[in-house]
Structure formats: C-alpha cells, structure tokens
Amino acid sequence: MANRSSSRAPNIIVPFVLFSLIAIACAEVFFEERFDDGWEKRWVKSDWKKDENVAGEWNYTSGKWNGDPNDKGIQTSEDYRFYAISAEFPEFSNKDKALVFQFSVKHEQKLDCGGGYMKLLNGEVDQKKFGGDTPYSIMFGPDICGYSTKKVHAILNYNGTNHLLKKDVPCETDQLTHVYTFILRPDATYSILIDNDEKKSGSLYSDWDLLPPKKIKDPEAKKPEDWDDKEYIPDPEDKKPEGYDDIPEEIPDPDAKKPEDWDDEEDGEWTAPTIPNPEYKGPWKPKKIKNPNYQGKWKAPMIDNPDFKDDPELYVYPNLKYVGVELWQVKSGTLFDNVLVCDDVEYAKKLAEETWGKNKDAEKAAFEEAEKKREEEEAKADPVDSDAEDEEDDDADDADDADAEVKKDDTAEIETETESDDVKDEL
Ligand SMILES: *[C@@H]1O[C@H](CO)[C@@H](O)[C@H](O)[C@H]1NC(C)=O
Ligand SMILES: *[C@@H]1O[C@H](CO)[C@@H](O)[C@H](O)[C@H]1NC(C)=O
C-alpha cells in the first residue's frame, strides 16, 4: 500500500527511496557469516572423531592466494581428517518464501578426493556431537573424488529420507574461489548457481524422487494377442529364382594346374582343389520389407499412481536452525567463506558480487603468481628436470598422477564408509 500511494507523489525520488526500503525490508537474512572478528563465538567445533585422533583443525586464513588478505574464511588444514563445525541461527520455516543457501569455497590443494559442501540442519542438534550421522535437511555443494566424481550435490531430506539430485551438475575443479547457491521456491522449483550463473533449474517433483511418481504404467494392462510388433516381414511377393539351389557352394579352382611331375598311374587321377564359389549366396531367403500392419512397440498405458499423494508443502523445511560443514578430506586446503541463508535471491546475488565478484581477478592474479613461484622453486630443487625436455616433464606429471591414485586407493575404504552412510540414509 505504501508503495502504491507513494508512486503518485510528484517527487520521483521519494518513491524510489521508499521502494528500495521496502525491498530491503522484505529481504530476510536468517544467517550471514563473513568470518570477521568474533566468528569463533558463533561456530561450534564438534568433538566428532576426536577420540580416534582423526578430527581435523581449521585454519582461520585468507589462504595462500586471495584478492584481499583481510578477507578470511575457515580452511581445512590437515590431510586425512574429518571436519565438523556448525553455527546456530534463530529457527525459521521457509514456508511461502524462497530459501537461498549460499557460500563460497576454494580448494587451494587441487582437491583429488573430498567434499566442499555444507549442510542445513533442523530441530535440536547437539553441536558438540555434530557429525556424519547427524540428520540434516539439505546438503549442498561440490564433491570431488578421482576422475569420476566432480559434481554438485543437492541432497534433500524428505520425511526422514535423503534423496540425491537426479541431474548431473558438474562442479568447479580449479584452485580458485567459487560461489555455490541453492535456491528453493514455494512453487517447488529450484535453481543451482555457480558464481551467480544458473547451472541447473527444475522441479522438486521431477529432479528428485521425493514422492512416488504421479503416473505409472498400468500394471493390469497386457499386450493384446494380435498386437503386431514386427517392424519387418519377409516379402510374400519375393520368389526363389529358378535354379538357385543348383549353384554349388564350392567349385574347382580354375587357376589350379596339374603339376608337371604328376603321374596318373602312381598318384591317381588329378583333381583340382576346390575354392568357395563366388556365385553362391547361401540358402535362399525372401527379401524383408516394412510390415504394413506394424503397430509399433507395445507400451502399457500410463495411469494415475494410486500411491501418489501430492504434498503442497514438499519444499517446506519447517524448523531450520543450523548450518554446518561435515567433511572427510584426503588433502586439506578447502576454504569456506561468506555463508548465507536468506529468502532473497537478489540479496544473495549482491553479496556474491561484493565478495567473490570484487576479489576474483586479484585472486586469479595472485594464484598465477604463486604458481609461477612454485614452478621456479621446483625447477631449482630439481635441476635435472629443468634441463629436461617436455617429455621428462610429462613423466613427472605421470608420477604425480600415480601418487594421487595410490592415495585415493588408501582412502577408498574410509571413503566408501562415509559414502555408504549417505546411501544408508537414503534407503
Ligand atoms: C594457515 O594458512 C596460512 C596461509 O595459507 C599458512 O601460512 C599457515 O601455515 C596455515 N596454518 C596452519 C596451522 O595450517
Ligand atoms: C513418511 O514416512 C512414513 C513412515 O516412514 C510413511 O508411512 C509415509 O507414507 C511417508 N509420507 C510421505 C508423504 O512420503
């Protein structure tokens, strides 16, 4: 109302100011963490995996390369470790509004196996015990392992069961900061953005199996007896040519000659060896023609699924209350920053621009500088390699790859263990 009446005001500046005030008032930020001073009071490090001595430490840092050394986040700092940390915010429900979940992540370690995702949790959580088995509402973000897994996870918990996104959304694999955004709307649509660029969008109904399918094949339907599903049939007009069966399969080799020293009396009568007859075409078969009565492949008709019951609140998470990171990492160096939970897509977009967008060019330049230095130092440390031709460099790369493979195998067991937890959850 205020907006409408003010738009009639003669001064055009007034409605503009009012409108932006309303826009800001409408945006609700449930949680925003830029990891400035005091972040440690807001986040609780879990004791999960501590007694097994495999709980990793976080490093509060802007990383080895960055666009602003004062803009810090939290980075995994130990290899082969589990990480679990979470923060609480005032409980809310996303009913009737958009839910925007966004954060930035940078894998400085050239991640070969590990996650870079975050979770939204609901209800009451003992943050000191937060770990891989703690139920969550949404798990979202990149996951990399070996050559096969390089994807954005978007796992939704519905009615106590975790459901994986059925669509493939590749994640970023370089060593720079990227912003991952998950948007869930009251019309049960979603979008996944990387660096403010939409990579995937669709419906909760089709891209996850949250509910049973709306339509199913009629289980009662049967293929009619007289259904003709032969696409080709023998041509009834085609006739076997006269004399076809008289063509022999083999004939005497016309090029064979009786050897000069062949003695009919001693060696018997000479006969030429046989060869396959080029005229012989095998047993006669009529030509195939398109079946004029072809009815197509039979398909059962689709009917309404009696087990489908729509849930107009499919997208609703009624008591979201925590955001957390729970990861296993083979190689550490993943840096999280600028975590946002809000109901305003534009606000999230702006935050990404003001942080990642502002710093990305300087970060890239710093990264390239660091890479150059690293290569120079490697060359100094190994002068043979620096004199060597490209060939030898390739060998060195191969050795690195092999090393990564071995590490992957080492951790395969632990990895499947954590993976199977997720799978278990899904069942
Ligand atoms: C934290 O990160 C900085 C920047 O990369 C690094 O110099 C420092 O050694 C790290 N500290 C730990 C404990 O890993
Ligand atoms: C929710 O889960 C319960 C128990 O597992 C089940 O009986 C019910 O049908 C489920 N509801 C929906 C909408 O999936």
TrEMBL record:
Record-level GO cellular component terms: endoplasmic reticulum lumen; endoplasmic reticulum membrane
Chain ranges passing through the membrane: none
Keywords: Calcium, Chaperone, Disulfide bond, Endoplasmic reticulum, Lectin, Metal-binding, Repeat, Signal, Zinc
GO terms, biological process: ERAD pathway; protein folding
Main location: endoplasmic reticulum
Binding site for an alpha-D-glucoside: 117, 119, 136, 143, 326
Biased composition regions of type Basic and acidic residues, renumbered to the chain: 215-243, 352-383
Leader sequence residues: 1-27
Identification of the protein by name: Calreticulin
Gene coding for it: LOC116201386
